[in-house]
């Protein structure tokens, strides 16, 4: 993996990706932040050596480098998922590349379903902790200790200082920002009523199919990390309606301006 990381990093450096400070991963339906960036360089995933390729039709496939609020950023426009057939090492490979390029902070977004019924679709949840239900770990491979400590402490995977800043920014901008626990499942199928009840019982406030592997690797690399979920549907097992993916995308787009405000304002503080 070290050889693959080196090849990918050198390719991007040659394309003009020069010492970004902040990495950003954009989730489902959350691509409009790109319009706020002064783009200096970009690379399609299928051109970057050793990179996976996004196979989900509503996920773009570009790594973008530029200036946002005076900071050099590198942005994943589209991410990878276990449900696309990738390994957890594939899914998190871009995080390792962004760290090698120079980032010290990683900001992550996703679209998620609200398990906590006090949270409503169209609102945003700041992730305070998570539950990994993806069945394995992105650190479970031979040679991981060559890239960092094998037994990574996860007592506080989300940076408390960044989370406090997010909460202050939300308050100042009149944005409803919940705080809670995100459960990450494999997917791609949505959950059953019984699964939603189980998730609530074990302490989840929201559920999705991403983010946790990336956060684990970010902690492995000692990056300061924060993540927000745009809540796109309400997962009430006693009143469960069939889910329309186009409605989820539309709800993410509705909440996106608030997410963009949060990300832009927090980058100003870094």
Automatic annotation (TrEMBL):
Keywords: Glycosyltransferase, Transferase. InterPro entries: Nucleoside_phosphorylase_d, Nucleoside_phosphorylase_sf, Pur_Nuc_Pase_Ino/Guo-sp, Purine_phosphorylase. It comes from the Bacteria. GO terms for cellular component: cytoplasm. One of its GO terms (molecular function) is purine-nucleoside phosphorylase activity. Belongs to the PNP/MTAP phosphorylase family. This is Purine nucleoside phosphorylase. It comes from Winogradskyella epiphytica.
């Amino acid at each position: 993996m070290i050889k693959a990381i080196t090849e990918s990093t050198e390719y991007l450096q040659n394309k003009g990706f020069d010492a970004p400070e902040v990495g950003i991963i954009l989730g489902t339906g959350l691509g409009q932040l790109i319009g706020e960036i002064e783009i200096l360089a970009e690379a399609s995933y299928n051109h970057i050596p050793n990179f996976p390729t996004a196979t989900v039709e509503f996920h773009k496939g570009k790594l973008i480098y530029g200036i946002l609020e005076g900071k050099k950023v590198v942005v994943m426009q589209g991410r990878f998922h276990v449900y696309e057939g990738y390994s957890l090492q594939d899914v998190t490979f871009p995080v390792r590349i962004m760290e090698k390029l120079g980032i010290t902070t990683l900001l992550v977004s996703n679209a998620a379903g609200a398990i906590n019924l006090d949270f409503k679709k169209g609102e945003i949840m700041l992730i305070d902790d998570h539950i990994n239900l993806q069945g394995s770990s992105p650190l479970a491979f031979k040679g991981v200790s060559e890239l960092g400590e094998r037994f990574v402490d996860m007592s506080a995977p989300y940076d408390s200082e960044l989370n406090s800043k997010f909460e202050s920014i939300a308050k100042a901008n009149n944005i409803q920002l919940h705080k809670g626990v995100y459960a990450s499942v494999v997917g791609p199928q949505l959950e059953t009523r019984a699964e939603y009840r189980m998730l609530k019982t074990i302490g989840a406030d929201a559920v999705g199919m991403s983010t946790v592997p990336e956060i684990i690797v970010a902690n492995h690399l000692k990056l300061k990390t924060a993540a927000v979920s745009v809540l796109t549907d309400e997962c009430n097992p006693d009143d469960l309606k069939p889910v329309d993916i186009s409605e989820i995308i539309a709800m993410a787009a509705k909440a996106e301006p608030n997410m963009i405000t949060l990300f832009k304002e927090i980058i100003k503080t870094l």
